[in-house]
């Protein structure tokens, strides 16, 4: 996928609003914007990322650490911020996409927070998040079938690839699904195994614009909440009064790091008679907690969708009653019923 054109608008040209106040009270320019937020975004889930302990990775001789250095992603992993859920929700609610003259490529995301106009281009994402440019970006592309593990559970990966999967699903491409290995996860793992750096800047930019471009009734989780919050702090946008999301603890597999075995470069083919490697107790416990968290988030998302449907149905019934009343008013009154002699 070719890189998109860059806007000439500077993301740092906005003047921040410094008066201490509730974040939400300074994020809307009209009652319509506030109503749109309350109706479609106030209950949306926001992805948060887990900080990465680079020192622990070095101590445990993490097999993929050198690739992270070669891809110049170390500075990106040092980005750390409190996730401001309200501000992220408002950012998505107020966002508009700016296209180039051909109307085919998105050149910037324009939004509004804390009395501040925000314009973010692909170049801004690269600079603000300390990311390199270039790389592969087709997450639906092919990957080596030798990577398959049955039954596609993270617990069946060796400890290095298991940790890599957690980095992918908690940091690089945050998601609520951490137990099962999906096709996109295999694609990411294959990029590390074959040393094909993904274009992380473009992937993040495209995932965010994809959600913005969805219809308002969409229930998609709002991605990259932690890194958008980091960008807000880089742009000096005040978040006073905004309740932060509790920070996650850094990714850690526990145990003695010196006992972590090095993975085999070429995994052996699966055998029906061979038993899978027993995962550590910590990994099993973490997988159980991930499964519980996934179920909780799915129920929470279902509840918010039901609430929105109920609100929309009420407003539509009210509108229908008004239209029927106007329609009846256009007809002459019915003649009185004749009285019996």
Automatic annotation (TrEMBL):
Region entry Disordered, spans: 1-23, 242-275
Start-end of Low complexity biased regions: 13-23
Name the UniProt record assigns to this protein: Uncharacterized protein
Originating species: Gossypium gossypioides (Mexican cotton)
